[in-house]
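FW: tagging you since you asked about this chain on Friday. Here's the raw sequence from the shared folder, copied in full. Didn't touch anything.
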Amino acid sequence: MVEIVSVDKNSYADKAGVRAGDKLVSVNGNDINDVLDYRFYITDKRLKLVVERNGERKTVLIKKPEYDDIGLEFASYLMDEKKRCKNNCIFCFIDQNPKGMRESIYFKDDDERLSFLQGNYVTLTNLKESDVERIIKMHISPVNVSVHTVNPELRAKMMRNRFAGECLQYLERLDKGGIALNTQLVLCRGINDGQELERSLAFLTSLENIQSIAAVPCGITGHRQGLYEISPYDKESAGEVIDIIDRFGKKCLREKGKRLVYAADEFFLLAQRPIPPEEYYEDYPQIENGVGMLRSHYEEFAHRLEKIDKFGYTNSEITIVTGEAAYRHIETLVGLAKSRFPQIRVRVRAIKNNFFGGYITVSGLVVGRDIIEQLKDEVNGGILLVPCNMLRYDRDLFLDNTSVQDLENALGVKVIITEKDGADLADKITGNY
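HL: got it, structure written out here
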């Protein structure tokens, strides 16, 4: 039973007499506990809602086209509390955050509903038998799973949860239930790579409904005091991971017609190997996990640049900030732009991540104070292009709570936010926006 906070005017629910403050008890005889129940059961053409008002229950009938929304709003997106992670993973990035950040950043969620609704990866350790049965019954698909290893003992050790190995059985249950699975393996050097990685890939590629498998290196910040000792990947060890993944990927291509297994871009950068061509990534099933992001960005940029026929700036100096990992990639794109528009005045600045420290080089974790500190003696005026992944969803704050306005004031620049797609960068680097 969940409380209704508002009802859209002239919606089906409004016309049927549902009011803000009512509590939704059931739909067509099915109890409503959260957003998945609600979304699944309101798709029917004929609905019988039981609502509670002032302690009394009443039945409301609604007729509507299939899949149409009925106009109810609830206090939260999930309609109840997020599920907190029960694990204490040896590689958990949240445990490596510096102090003094926004409180929400320290919250560890592990919620299968967010896997389906927002693409989050979950460990399955929060699931009960009833949750698995509900996923299969509702055909909630795909489900994104952080597997890490299929060795039960090792998984329990890595996640510091004695039940972490047992819940691997849910993978097979979901697979047999026809649920598509996207999986990730956060690799820790010398722990779940090598033979353990081969074991994991052999199992995962055998699943009938596996959609994709991504291997990503664990992030290691400079704030790991008292935490499990993990060595960073280097050129040789990153190359070994890529070789294993490529071997399984080629096997899947031969046997299933799809690669299925991918290494994150960061492994290729660490191994100093070229980012694979576009066909390697097929339909980019794990691009949000850093798999193929650089290749897609390059292709989008180059395609858009070919269609730009005018240069929009007059006399502006442009600085592009990025993380150390993507520096050469952005430099390559700038080279393409300069070959088409020789008058362009642009430079790329790789920002060293002093805030997180350690081995953090990705652009998405660059903070405002590091940008200010490293550019204050170099930039005075002009345009500063900042990728949107450095900012929170409102595009106003970096992870250290530095604002875009702070950046503009400190450096005397006009900040322009670039979107994730390469086409947007091509437009903004040439003044066509």
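FW: The chain has three domains: 2-74, 94-290, 297-429.
HL: agreed, and Residues 235-256 form the longest helix (22 residues).
FW: great, closing this out.
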